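Chain A, query sequence.
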Amino acid sequence: MKAIVTVIGEDCVGIIAKISTLLMEHNVNIVDLTQNVLDNIFTMTMIVDVSKVSASFEALSSALQQKGEEMGLDIRIQREEIFTAMHRI
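Chain A, predicted structure.
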């Protein structure tokens, strides 16, 4: 099962490292990643494999949200099928 992680906020050192570490700690594999910085605003979209996640999806979502609050970022995760349905026009 795949999911989409989105990150938005002010750019700072270590964003990718800290989020990647959290995902690794939950046994989540990063399949693809794109990131950009525009006028000091950091954006990142990751496709991740959550088929072997070591906690519930809800616990992973909560951990990402908490990490985002600590870093002053908006971090969200959605199951791929929900993300795709929401962005289909």
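The mean pLDDT is 93. The CA atoms of residues 6 and 45 lie 5 Å apart.
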